[in-house]
Automatic annotation (TrEMBL):
Keyword Transmembrane in annotation: yes
Residues annotated as transmembrane: 118-141
UniProt-annotated location(s): Membrane
Membrane topology: Single-pass membrane protein
Cross-referenced Pfam families: Ac45-VOA1_TM (PF20520), VAS1_LD (PF05827)
GO CC annotation, single: endomembrane system
PANTHER family named in the record: ATPASE, H+ TRANSPORTING, LYSOSOMAL ACCESSORY PROTEIN 1-LIKE, VACUOLAR ATP SYNTHASE SUBUNIT S1
This protein's name: VAS1L protein
Family from the record: Belongs to the vacuolar ATPase subunit S1 family.
Keywords: Membrane, Transmembrane, Transmembrane helix
Length: 198
């Protein structure tokens, strides 16, 4: 597939050539096309050649990408074919790139396979946050399961008052049984100090 621009400034006969290949894959049971190589021609000779990576789609689809470039900041889908030729001196960037080499109907692009990967930055951050929340929930459940209840005894102390020894006759008026079964416990009515043993 060739895009001919003609003469642009000092560039005589500028042509951008896309070399596309098609292959049949048994796993997907369909033909796929891929951009194999990109060539820049002017002055009737090839000046730069770039190998394309990860630019492919089913043959009945088109391929779309926001940036197809030889620059690292755009993920460098175009790689100079050799360090010895002039390709490393060129910087090529296509914006809103869409290509379809086969099965073109009525001069329109078919449904596009986009280059955006499934694990984009936003999806990855969402998965990390979900994992953090899941760990916090698991830790909270672990703490609830291992929460120990006060099954031995319960003590409350409202005031650290000192209680003098009472006489036996006064003790009968001041004490009141709390429970009749098992061991007996007594509560002092007039003091803010209690001990309840279970």
């Amino acid at each position: 597939l060739s895009l001919k621009f003609g003469d642009i400034g000092n560039l005589k006969g500028l042509v951008i050539r896309f070399l596309l290949t098609t292959s049949y894959y048994q796993l997907s049971v369909q033909n796929w096309f891929s951009l194999h190589r990109l060539q820049l021609l002017y002055n009737h000779s090839i000046q730069a050649t770039f190998n394309a990576t990860r630019i492919y789609a089913p043959a009945s689809y088109s391929y779309h990408c926001e940036h197809v470039s030889s620059l690292q900041r755009y993920d460098a889908l175009l790689i100079p074919s050799s360090a010895n030729d002039l390709s490393k001196l060129w910087e090529v960037t296509f914006i809103d790139f869409q290509i379809q080499g086969f099965n073109i109907q009525e001069g329109h692009f078919a449904y596009a396979k986009d280059c955006a990967s499934f694990f984009s930055t936003a999806i990855l951050m969402g998965m990390v946050m979900s994992l953090i929340l899941l760990l916090v929930l698991a830790y909270a459940l672990h703490m609830l399961i291992h929460l120990k209840s006060l099954d031995r005894h319960y003590e409350c102390k409202a005031s650290p008052a000192y209680f003098a020894q009472m006489k036996d006759n006064d003790l009968g008026d001041e004490k009141e049984p709390l429970r009749s079964s098992g061991s007996e416990s007594y509560e002092l009515r007039n003091q803010q100090f209690c001990k309840i043993y279970i």
